[in-house]
Design goal:
The complex is a heterodimer of chains A (about 500) and B (about 100).
Chain A: H1 9-17, H2 23-41, E1 44-47, H3 49-65, E2 75-79, H4 106-113, E3 117-122, H5 166-173, E4 179-184, H6 190-196, E5 199-202, E6 222-227, H7 230-240, E7 270-274, H8 284-299, E8 303-307, H9 315-330, H10 348-359, H11 362-375, H12 381-401, E9 407-411, H13 427-431, H14 438-443, E10 447-454, E11 460-467, H15 472-486
Parallel strand pairs in A: 2-3, 2-4, 7-8, 7-9
Antiparallel strand pairs in A: 1-3, 4-6, 5-6, 5-10, 9-11, 10-11
Chain B: H1 5-14, H2 21-38, H3 73-77, E1 83-84, E2 87-88
Antiparallel strand pairs in B: 1-2
Helix pairs in contact in B: 1-2
The chains are: A alpha/beta (about 500), B mainly alpha (about 100).
Chain lengths: ~500, ~100
């Protein structure tokens, strides 16, 4: 039998429908592979094989009875930021300890209601704060990709899978699930997707419910999938998105059938290329990747237009005010009283302080302190209010661009995957990873990363598509054209299966 | 702009995070670096710009003021470090 873990989500769906294999066989193939490979990749912080087998058995009954749901029997990974009913959820922070939520996130519930199977909880940067998955309390995730040296041989240096959804990107890229849930506050779906040769979409703010997802920065957080192909990501988002009364920022709008638009092509589509994204010091290979993307879309009938988004350079500094401010407010709830870790102190304040010092990692503490500072008396106007005004200008840039173009094309990241430890000592260098992605969160727009080529080191690079609010359909059909032209990229050698 | 040690201590107290002297020293430098970097926003003229309060232009939805959930004290307190009879047990606050 062929290796079932190599299938795409849509191929697996077709195989189940044709009864070429059962949901139990498919699920067991992934469970075996996770057992073999997880020690090397560290994508799963909690595999849930028994839970998965039970779901798969139920799926097999439905498949047999002919009442299969849209994702019936398809095994997925679930980022540990999504609360799972009765199953440990930690946001990869010590402060949540052994927290077992008595409820399920809405996005998760939508997936299980659609018949999907959960293989386990996936690693991420602590509270989704990071761009390399190096801040997780469960340790680093290792990318399945390895650099090619000058001699053409693959080095054994460990590369980061991106972050914060590094467990999601690495699990998908190493065939440890068919697709995964992820979240994106400043680039946490798109950057890891770009660094691992996978597809990731952050939908418009409000498209997916945030209910039951551990909060980082509530005005920026949004859930979305990481998957092997554009089609798979379309299938996933359709199932994840919904209007939800439990999240007052979720939007009451019908969720289109994204899969149905994939073949529409880009003939006559106006593609914007923002000149401000040609940043100083952009590497030649990123420049070439971008040019390739432009050429592919042009060849498929799109028209290319240079546009200007003049406030682009201010998006990242504004983000590093807004996100820490909202983080300091959201993370105030971790006080050791109602759930999670408690370190007893001499009095109530001492208990709070000791609990939070022991429970939060370094990057999370840093962001809470920055957020507390910018929100503190006398500084609110100078920092937070200023940043929110700049945010209005960033959104206005895009509003004007939409008069001229239908979609915007940029690189996803300024550089390919870096090695573990390479940037973790310098917070500002790490923050610059998100230079091309944060604008999208600041403006609440949908953004998607699609693999488009390999770097000189033989590691993946992604192109980013940015769309109008709630126009994910245009992103999917444009991404399909790029995928058709660029092909797909799989990590060679499967070293992680060799023990 | 410079965040001094006293400011780091004040902020850490506000944020209810205990920090050591060594950590305070490191944070002085890190926070100053980050805050200096975000100060580039001062170049932007925002005198006639409204701050963004939400990205999607929709009014907050209203719903009937009725109980939709509840009577689940056991579930609510299940994860508490200390609980008793459906209540959270917390350190003594009033002497």
């Amino acid at each position: 039998m062929t290796d079932l873990t190599k299938l795409t989500l849509s191929q697996a769906r077709d195989g189940l429908a044709k009864k070429s294999f059962s949901a139990t066989e498919l699920t067991n193939a992934f469970i075996d592979r996770i057992e073999k490979a997880n020690a090397a990749i560290n994508a799963y912080v909690l595999p849930t094989p028994e839970h998965a087998r039970a779901q798969a058995a139920e799926s097999d009954k439905r498949l047999k009875a002919g009442n299969a749901r849209p994702l019936e029997g398809l095994p997925l990974g679930n980022k540990d930021l999504f609360c799972t009913n009765g199953i440990r959820t930690t946001a990869c922070s010590k402060i949540l300890d052994d927290f077992k939520p008595p409820y399920e996130s809405t996005v998760g519930q939508n997936l299980w209601d659609a018949g999907a199977v959960m293989l386990g909880k996936l690693n991420n940067d602590e509270f989704a704060m990071g761009s390399s998955n190096e801040t997780s309390a469960f340790g680093n995730v290792v990318s399945p990709w390895r650099r090619k040296g000058k001699d053409g041989k693959r080095s054994t240096d460990k590369l980061v899978p991106g972050g914060s959804s590094g467990g999601s990107s690495a699990a998908v890229a190493s065939d440890l699930c068919l697709a995964a849930t992820a979240t994106d506050t400043g680039g946490s779906i798109r950057q890891p997707a770009a660094l691992t040769g996978t597809v990731g979409i952050k939908p418009t703010y409000g498209r997916c419910s945030r209910w039951g997802i551990v909060a980082f920065a509530s005005s920026l957080d949004q859930a979305g999938p990481i998957a092997k192909t554009v089609r798979d990501s379309a299938i996933m988002l359709k199932a994840m998105a919904s209007h939800d009364l439990k999240d007052s920022t979720s939007v009451e709008a019908p969720v289109p059938d994204y899969e149905a638009v994939l073949s529409k092509g880009v003939k006559g589509l106006r593609v914007g290329v923002p000149k401000e994204y040609r940043v100083d010091g952009m590497s030649k290979e990123i420049g070439k990747l971008w040019d390739d993307g432009i050429a592919w879309l042009k060849a498929a009938g799109a028209t290319i237009h240079e546009i200007s988004l003049p406030h682009t350079k201010y998006a990242l500094p504004a983000y590093y005010i807004v996100a820490p401010a909202e983080c300091s407010s959201n993370l105030a709830r971790y006080d050791g009283m109602r759930y999670g870790l408690r370190i007893e102190g001499d009095n109530l304040i001492d208990t709070y302080e000791k609990t939070r010092a022991a429970g939060f990692g370094k990057e999370v503490r840093r962001r809470i302190l920055i957020g507390t500072y910018v929100l503190s008396a006398g500084y609110y106007d100078a920092y937070y209010l200023k940043a929110q005004k700049v945010r209005t200008l960033i959104k206005r840039d895009f509003d004007e661009a939409w008069n001229k173009v239908d979609v915007v094309l940029t690189p996803t990241t300024p550089s390919p995957a870096f090695a573990l430890g390479e940037k973790s000592g310098d917070p500002l260098a790490m923050y610059l990873e998100d230079i091309f992605t944060v604008t999208v969160n600041m403006a609440g727009l949908p953004g998607m990363s699609v693999p488009a080529g390999l770097s000189s080191e033989g590691t993946p690079l992604g192109l980013q598509l940015i769309g109008k609010p709630f126009d994910e359909e245009t992103l999917f059909r444009t991404a399909q054209v790029i995928e058709d032209a660029a092909g797909r990229f799989a990590a060679p050698d499967e070293w992680w299966m060799k023990g | 702009m410079q965040v001094d040690k006293a400011t780091v201590r004040r902020i850490a107290r506000l944020a209810r995070i205990k920090i050591t002297d060594e950590e305070a020293q490191g944070l002085e430098k890190e926070l100053s670096g980050i805050l200096d970097w975000v100060k580039q926003l001062d170049e932007v003229d925002t005198s006639s710009v409204e701050p963004m309060t939400r990205v999607v232009g929709q009014a907050l939805p209203m719903r009937d003021d009725v109980v939709t959930d509840g009577e689940i004290a056991e579930a609510v307190t299940r994860n508490a470090p200390k609980s008793e009879d459906g209540f959270f047990v917390v350190p003594k606050v009033v002497e």
